[in-house]
Design brief:
By secondary structure, the chain is an alpha+beta fold. The chain folds into 2 domains: 166 residues, 2-Layer Sandwich (Uridine Diphospho-n-acetylenolpyruvylglucosamine Reductase, domain 3), CATH 3.30.465; 103 residues, CO dehydrogenase flavoprotein, C-terminal domain (Enolase-like, domain 1, 2-Layer Sandwich), CATH 3.30.390.50. Helix content is 35%, strand content 26%. A 5-stranded antiparallel beta sheet has the order 4-5-10-6-7. A 4-stranded antiparallel beta sheet has the order 11-12-13-14, with helices on both faces. It has a 3-stranded parallel beta sheet with strand order 1-3-2, with helices on one face. A hairpin with a 6-residue loop joins strand 13 and strand 14. It starts with a strand and ends with a helix. Bound molecules: flavin-adenine dinucleotide.
Amino acid sequence: MKIFLPTNIKEFLEIKSKEPDAIILAGGTDLLAQWHNNKIMPNKIISISMLKNLSFIKEENNFVEIGSLTNHATIESNKIINKYLPILATAASTIGAPAIRNMGTIGGNIANASPAADLAPALLVYDAIVKLTSMNSTRELKLSEFYRGYKQTALGKDELIFSIKIPLPPQGVVTEFFKIGTRRAQSIAKVSLAGLIKKEKKGIDIIRLAAGSVAPTPIRLYELEKFLQGKILTRSVISTACDILQKYIKPITDVRSTEEYRRIALKNILVKFLSGI
Ligand SMILES: Cc1cc2nc3c(=O)[nH]c(=O)nc-3n(C[C@H](O)[C@H](O)[C@H](O)COP(=O)(O)OP(=O)(O)OC[C@H]3O[C@@H](n4cnc5c(N)ncnc54)[C@H](O)[C@@H]3O)c2cc1C
C-alpha cells in the first residue's frame, strides 16, 4: 500500500490529480473502522493530517467559514460557532466520545455522507455551502446538493473539501437540535432533527427543518417548511405538519432501529420543537 503525506494543499492537489483513486484520510474515525471491518481495502491513501491550513474557523463577510480538517471538539468549544451557530456546537458535542471528537473532522462527517451524520441536520438548516477545490478549479455548492444518495456525494475524484461556509443566520431566530440514540455517548443517531424558526404575531416568518437517519441522506424538509411558512402554530397546524412529515420521510429498519420507531420518534421531536417555542 502507498501512503502519501502532503504538507501543503498544492502538494495534495498535485498528488490527487495524478492519483484520483487514492482515498483521502482525515481523522480516520470512519475510514479506519471501515477498513478494520473489511468494507474497504485501500491501495493508496493520502493523509491530509499535515495540512494545518485546513483547520480554521473564521467569521468574514457575513459568513462563518470552517476548514474541513477542523475537529468536532474544536467546533463544540469555539466562540464564533457558539455565538452564531449554537446548534452546530450542540451537534458536535453529541458525536461519539471525547477521543472521537478530538480526531473526527467536519470534512469527514460530510464526505462520508452517512444519513446519521450528526453535523448534517444543523448545517442544512444553516444553509451551509461546501467549498470544493481541485488543481484547476474551486466550486461551491449547497450541502443539500452535495448529497447525491446513500453514501454518495458530488465530490469529484480530483477534489478536496476545502471548507464549509455558513451565512450568518437571520437575527432573532430560535434553533434547536435533537438526537435520539441508544445512550448519551458513543451512540449513532436513530433519528435526529434540527430546527430554525422565527415567529411573528401574524405567523411563522422563517422556518427551516432538517432530519437525520430517516432517508438515504440527511434531508431538508422543504415541503414541511412550505406548509408551515406564515402559519400560526395551533394544535391543528402541528397535527397536519406531522402528517406531511410522514409522507416525506423514508426511514428504514436496520440494526439501530425500526422504521416504525423512527417515524414516531421524529414526529414526537417535531411536536416538541414546534410547540416548545
Ligand atoms: C466509535 C465511533 C463513534 C462515532 N460516533 C459518531 C456520532 O455520534 N455521530 C457522527 O456523526 N459520527 C460518528 N462517528 C463517525 C465519525 O467519527 C464522523 O463521521 C467523523 O466526523 C469522520 O471524520 P474523520 O475526519 O474521522 O473522517 P475519515 O474517517 O478520515 O474520512 C471519512 C470519509 O471522508 C473523506 N474525507 C475526509 N475528509 C475529507 C476532505 N477534506 N475532503 C474530501 N473527502 C474527505 C474520506 O476519504 C472518507 O471517505 C463515530 C465513529 C466511531 C468510530
